[in-house]
Amino acid sequence: MLQRKILLIVILLSGFSISGGLVYAQSNFESIPIIPFDVAENELHLKVLQYVTNSEGREQIVNIPVDEILFKLVPKYDEYGRVTSMFLSKDPKFNDIYKKIGFFTKSTTTAFVYPIFTQAAYSKDGFYDYYNEKCDSKCLTVTIPSNFKGSYSSSIIGSYVLSTLNYSYITDIDIDKNPDILKQYKRIIVLHNEYVTKKEYDAISNHPDTIYLYPNALYAEVKSDYATNTITLVRGHGYPDINIKNAFNRIIDNSRYEYNVSCDNWTFYLRENKTLLNCYPEVRLIHDPELLKYLQKDDPSDIPYDIGYWLRYSHQPETTHGLLADFDVSGEHIPAWVANPAIWFLSGKITEAEFSKIIEYLYEIKAFQ
């Protein structure tokens, strides 16, 4: 069978219709090295799509199984056979799946937060041009976009996927102007909301049911000026001092997972009574219905199930590893006396947060080694 080389890159998305329907995505970044791979000449479609992610200049390749993609992707090529843009839209053949992993009508109980401030930060002549010494401090004040034309770094794909599944959405602006807006929703899903105001940070941090679907959220502080329609970096990401990373000194900072882009071994875990994911799921959300299904579970971290499993099979290493993973800690042994508070939690005598504090304390004193 004759083979030919197809030169393909997958670009970073930068546009979508928040209300669903057709999405036009186009690269707004510098060119990315072309990644070659073989495809049979008479094959009508690729089996694996090699997607090049780019986060702060760090490129990685993620293989996407084409037959598992839950949406229509129509790429556009330039004269060199490179993908420069694509259309993303619903695929009617997956309507039954959409209903199982989403809502029949627009959700009134769950909303995701679109990171419009982060979209602004990553724009041309924005914060990253300052970080990379391409411009001076004038780039630390940027215009707030009037539409959703984000990128991989502002979770544009995740935004589209959740919108397609009838999740409601609000933006950084909505929360900054009216923090009480979060009280309308039982659950809030935070995307890659890396840049937020202090008012927004407090509101999200205090919400009782928040899923941090992307790592590195609530990382840097900005201040808003709606008279000039701008945001300005205040603190974080090495500014104003190179030693300042997390602007808010968050205990549950999970930024180390930002570069786990394949999400092959994704899991939700609990920290300080907050639910977090251990990878950057932007690409995974296109083709993994199980991950999307977890967003509607009462406890995405599966703590009650894993506790019950550990109580029954505490002698098996995998049950110990599974339970500890729910709290983003590791170890080989859980003290036998933990069975009592585990039973108290399952019977409702103590809360999940109280049980979590026990696990975190034991990890600190190295009781799991």
Characterise the protein shown here.
It is a single chain. The model is unreliable at about 1-45 and about 80-85 (pLDDT under 50). Helices cover about 25% and strands about 25% of the residues. The N and C termini lie far apart (about 55 Å). The chain is α/β, with parallel strands linked by helices and about 375 residues long. Helix 8 (about 305-310) packs antiparallel against helix 9 (about 315-325) and helix 8 packs across helix 10 (about 340-345). The chain has helices at about 95-100, 115-120, 125-130, 155-165, 170-175, 200-205, 290-295, 305-310, 315-325, 340-345, 350-365; strands at about 5-10, 25, 35-40, 50-55, 60-65, 70-75, 85-90, 110-115, 140-145, 170, 185-190, 195, 210, 220-225, 230-235, 270, 275. Strands 10-8-11-13-17-16 form a 6-stranded mixed β-sheet. A 4-stranded mixed β-sheet has the order 9-15-14-12. The protein is built from 11 helices and 17 strands. A hairpin with a 2-residue loop joins strand 4 (about 50-55) and strand 5. The chain has 3 domains: about 5-90, no CATH class; about 95-295, no CATH class; about 305-365, no CATH class.
